[in-house]
Give the backbone structure.
Amino acid sequence: MPVSNMPVSKPVVTRFAPSPTGFLHIGGARTALFNWLYARGRGGKFLLRIEDTDRERSTPEATEAILKGLTWLGLDWDGNAVSQHGALARHADVAQQMLSAGTAYKCFATQDEIAAFREQARAAGQSTLFRSPWRDVPGTDHPDAPFVVRIKAPQTGETVIEDAVQGKVTWQNDQLDDMVLLRSDGTPTYMLAVVVDDHDMGVTHVIRGDDHLANAARQSLIYRAMGWDLPVFAHIPLIHGPDGKKLSKRHGALGVEEYQAMGYIPAGLRNYLARLGWSHGDDEVFTTDQALEWFDLTGIGKAPARLDFKKMESINSQHIAMSDDAQLLQDIDGYMTANDIPPLSATQKDGLARAMFCLKDRAKTLGDLLAKAQFVLSARPLTLDEAASKQLDETARAVLHELTPHLQTVSWDREPLETAVAGFAEARGLKLGKLAGPLRAALAGRAVSPSVFDMMTILGREETLARLGDIGN
């Protein structure tokens, strides 16, 4: 039976509805992002619902991890996060309304009876779809016994969902069972709770993983039974690992907090996740403002997206280079906290801010950026790494000692410094590269760093000369 979607003229309301049983999965983060982009890009609302009806598996710690992950990713939601468990009475009330309307019924079949039915059906090679014998039994003939409430699903015809991603999807009604709405203890099932919550929250677009596609047909029966408008369904393909298999722990980082600890920045991860299964022409790197302007359900593909860490790293690198320095400093604070690294001092932050212009380019992650920044974060005397120690042999130390007086009176800007060092090297028959290696090692304590002239201008005359003096001692 076809069910039409609600009028598109309504203000857009989307929702993200995670279960608080663990961290914010990278797939969940992408689902949240798609919902956020679609709503925010149209001036609509993005709502957050914590589906915590499974009291045994739901934990406050998992809820906090989800909220923290969304906040770090920059996905703000409207109003307070709603607890699904808090609406149990409302869910039960809807089931009672359906009982009164005759679109649901009380089923007194026990679990043993259902199991026996299915075993007999399997043995006979018949469908194991349970058909309750209580479907049409009048209330006057009901026993005084525990019961569940089941929906009266149509048994002929078909149910059709016009999915915004998957297209027209059809189910034969004789393949849909009379699903349980209320358990024997009076608690609602997931299928009922989701529909009631989405209706009550005014959700116009349900954007979720395509593992929920089969649920859409069954949930549509509740909408129809209650006379409610159906939301626009958009079931997005799941994320697979680089090997094309369903994403799992073997593929590496899964939780959003792990990506923060790995040195990815929110802007970079938002860009990568938006591009993971959605496209806007050939655009690979774009700002969040551009994503908000461009994002549409028609750009979502039907095939599973593959996680590509190299591409993620590349996009992250470009966003680091594009980022505002003040924002990067905030991102670095979060990165250090996530890795239990002691916070930077005010002096270190000041030095990092001054050095940012030569650190942002080509840094794949915040860890890379901080590694390049060690020259400005470290205090004298520097601890030399192995490569730097090799650069500073006895000959190199003597050359740097000889260079030092030439730097004491030069104007302390990049161009005069380059001219002075190049002139010194030429006068002694040295190539500039031969002098740059030891100079870098003396100023940074390592063989990999920004340009020696950038370091000299950032460190200043006094600190530069002092570090060269340390090498001579």
Remarks:
- The chain is about 45% helix and 10% strand.
